[in-house]
Design brief:
Layout lengths: L10 H11 L2 H8 L5 H13 L6 H23 L10 H8 L4 H7 L8 H13 L1
Length: 129
């Protein structure tokens, strides 16, 4: 069944889209705006370099669909259901997982999770000078 986005996305096309989406620069631009045609034009141009011919509308539609599907699977998992799943959940979780409030509170504790050798190395360096 062909949808508004034209032909179905192949697994490789979706992987390439997610790879571009995982770029921190792209993520920051997407988080900060609703009018994102320009951003998806960049995404489409980058897909073109992989030999994938998609226009910005197709990229935006696929992005929205993936994001929506991810959120519904994530909320199902949070409520204890394991019946819902999706193909690219782990990849999307790596990108979108930081948006959840639970994750935000964890990131405050990042310093305590640093390996001890980091702090030791720093103090050794200080004493050398």
């Amino acid at each position: 069944v062909a949808n508004e986005g034209g032909k179905h996305w192949t697994v490789n096309e979706v992987r390439a889209l997610i790879r571009i989406w995982s770029d921190k620069n792209i993520q920051q631009q997407l988080e900060g705006t609703v009018r994102n045609k320009r951003i998806f034009e960049q995404v489409a141009a980058r897909l073109q370099k992989f030999g994938i011919d998609r226009d910005w509308k197709q990229c935006r539609t696929k992005y929205k669909n993936l994001k929506h599907e991810y959120k519904s699977v994530k909320s199902a998992q949070d409520s204890g259901s394991t019946s819902k799943s999706m193909k690219f959940f782990n990849e999307l979780d790596a990108i979108l997982g930081h948006c959840t409030t639970e994750q935000a509170s964890k990131s405050d504790n990042d310093e305590s999770e640093r390996p001890p050798e980091w702090t030791e190395a720093k103090s050794e360096k200080d004493s050398v000078g």
